[in-house]
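We emphasize that the prediction below concerns an isolated chain of 525 residues; any contacts that depend on oligomerization or on bound cofactors are therefore not represented. The input was used exactly as deposited, without trimming of termini.
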Amino acid sequence: MKTYIKLLAVSSLFVLGACSNDFLDTEPSTTKVEENFYKTPTDAYQGLIAIYDILQREAYGGPLLISEQASDDCFGGYGVADAQADIEWDRFLYVTNKDMNADVWKNSYLGIYRANILLENLNKVNWGADTALKTRYEAEARFLRAHFHFQAAKFFGDIIPLDHTITSSEFQLPRQSAEVTYALIANDLKFAADNLNNDNYSQKGNANYGRITKWAAEAYLARTFLFYTDYYKKADLAGVVTRAQATTYINDVVSNSGHGLVADFANLWLAASFENFAGEDNTEMVWAVRFNGSGKGDWNLNEGNRFQVNIAPRGGSIGRYATGWGGATVNPKLYNAYEAGDTRRDATIINYAGEGLNFNAEAREQRQYTGYSWKKYCPITNAAGTAIVEVNGGNFQIDNYQDYAIIRYADVLLMAAELNLGTNGALAQADLDRVRDRAFKSTTHRVTVSKTAIMDERRLELALEGQRYFDLIRQGMDVTKSAIDNTAGGSEFAVTFRTETLGWLPLPQSQIILSNGTITQNPGW
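Result of the prediction step, given as a token string:
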């Protein structure tokens, strides 16, 4: 840990990546240091932007792609000649010298570090009479600190929770129990939920779209509650939030947030709707990571959405779908899990044959070709077949611009249905019905609410959004193995989930080496 934490400590807080998209528009400063910086609310605002900036680093090897490859919904994919680093998550194999998961660990702790820097300096700022602004910045920073902790904890299990910037005597801190980490997460999210006002930024042109809101904090509390209590078989969230409280929070989002469902599921996704795209700042987006293409090929910036190129069709654009690397090919089991009439299937997944597209997998050197790939988040071309990102002057690898939806209102409804089970069955049923009614554009496909029905619905509604793997492991290793193990399609698609891992992914080997024995590898790896 020593060398790694030192690297974090000397990372300039103010190398901001020139984030744009309204509230992220700010000029980077590389000449100021912590000791002489935090004096004005503007200084604090720049510190807050520095935390948000880390969200945009969902790039190659990031949590979305890794978790989808590890789930039952995707295989490894990519090209036949590509290095094997991306297929091991599909097959639950680990290659030590790849330092796999390094970015997940690094970016989580960089976000935590930046949040702690701001939180420790808020009292140095001259806020004048605007103490409410100080509280708002604290709430946003604590939410983001909770997010980065949760991102690491749901990947690695026991981690090193940090509620302060560490001193030299703490360079080799050990991992803590889940209860310690989740207590910090819960307290941070509770503070955000209880101290942010009722603003809803998901309206067209709202300059604050993408910032943390009370509604995002309440929904995130529900998400962490469900994961923690399910996986660890606990009654409450680390002694901080009870089930009744979590239910009250999520019901508040359902009833009072002003968020709602976009009428047509397909209109949430650019590649599915084209001209009818609802826009990224639509009412369903409770919280999304914002991206844009203004970097124009500058690899030193992290403004563009870099995971989009990974899942786009390999070997050149095809139809309206722009080119990419063909990663995380979609498992036919996911495509076939949708019932007839479910509009989500064709809005979520590209079916090459079904759409009349001749995808020559051999010529395109596509590994693990299934006939299906991601439509959600797939970049698109213009009528002439040129990727839109390139028409706008960007690089197709790093300048795609679609936002990453972390919490949609549909997810809120499904979490509310789950939390209301056993106490308010009618409300749970109504929440589930709203999601299915939108999917089928009718009321004739309703099912009786239950834990199983909700988990099945989460798979279909939130497919390829980074939730499936964690929904599986919170249900237990037997459920996870039953879903993920695969023998169909021959040896190229053979997958065996190893229950001895307990669902946790391996720690980066570099961190184990740097810890000098303080950290040991997760079980099964």
